[in-house]
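Today's session is about reading a structure prediction critically. Students often jump straight to the picture, but the first step is always the sequence itself: look for stretches that repeat, for charged clusters, for runs of hydrophobic residues. Only then move on to the predicted structure, which in these notes is written as discrete structure tokens rather than atom positions. Here is the chain we will use throughout the hour.
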Amino acid sequence: MDMRMTGNNVSISAALKTYAERRLRSAVGTATQTFTEVEVRLCDVNGPRGGVDKECGIRVVLHEAGVIFVRASGEDAYATIDKAASRLRLAVARRVGRHRSIRRRSGVDL
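Below is the predicted structure for this chain, in token form.
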């Protein structure tokens, strides 16, 4: 999976990038083969003031099923990535299931 990760007021370390990639792989499993593009954005909304201010947005382009975008926020970058990955798992399952049922109804073989 080729993943692009950017940060706004957050430093992206190699460990954080590795964690995000591993977490996304475990969240969506074999569906990563249908991804053509993955982008993870981390943002520190409040800056140095603290609080629940980390936000993670994940944008995934699926081969034939369109674009999915999920967002989560929290106090810690790692926990925020976990929340967003969980939401992505549900969104991908919904989208892929919907796409398969449309293809079956139209008579196209998988």
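Discussion point for the tutorial: The chain has one domain: 3-105.
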